[in-house]
Amino acid sequence: MIDCIGTKPPTVLSRLPSEKKNYRLRKNRDFQTVYRQGRYFASPDIVIYCKQQESNQSSRIGFAVVRKTGGAVQRNRLRRRLREVVRLNSSELPLMGCDIIVMARPEAANKTFTELSHTFLILCQRLARWYKEKHTPKENRL
Questions:
Q1: Tens of pLDDT along 109-132?
Q2: Is the pLDDT of residue 18 over 60?
Q3: How many angstroms separate the CA atoms of 12 and 87, rounded?
Q4: Which of 23, 48, 63, 114 lies at a 20 to 30 A Cα distance from 107?
């Protein structure tokens, strides 16, 4: 029996392996839609794109790494590191029914895991502020 006391609620990336595929952006047309119609939040290392879905499904997340980062080995390593950063901090993404892309810029290859995590948290705070403003009725805003 697994002790669940003090654990966080399940998030987008902490589901069972069979369910993970349903929560990932995979198709090029989905990525292009988020790039064209979504909102973005950028730092020198990471860019987060976010687009509200028409249907209120579960959030989906995708990862992209710029080719200027290096060869396939470096890009895949950076993609795995970003995936882990998002998995550990996914409770900071206050979004339901959004498509999210986390894109790494070439500068991210030289950053430590802690620096990437810190940058991701800062961008999540900016994203949460925008999301809250967008979904709060105008008469309730201060």
A1: 999 999 999 999 999 999 888 888
A2: no
A3: 8
A4: 23
- Answer whether CATH 3.30.230.10 is correct for domain 23-132: yes
Over the stretch 73-95, which tens digit does the pLDDT of each residue have? 999 999 999 999 999 988 877 66
Report in angstroms the alpha-carbon separations of 139 from 96, 129, 133, 136. 23, 17, 11, 8
The whole-angstrom separation of Cα 125 and Cα 139 is: 23
Task: List the chain domain ranges.
Answer: 23-132
The neighbouring-strand residues paired with 62 are: 101
Q: To which residue do tokens 């794109």 refer?
A: 49
Q: Which residue has the tokens 């800062």?
A: 122
Burial label, 28 (beta-carbon count in 10 A; 0-12, 13-18, 19+): exposed
Q: Which of 77, 91, 75, 85 is nearest to 115 (CA)?
A: 85
Complete DSSP assignment for 112-126: -HHHHHHHHHHHHHH
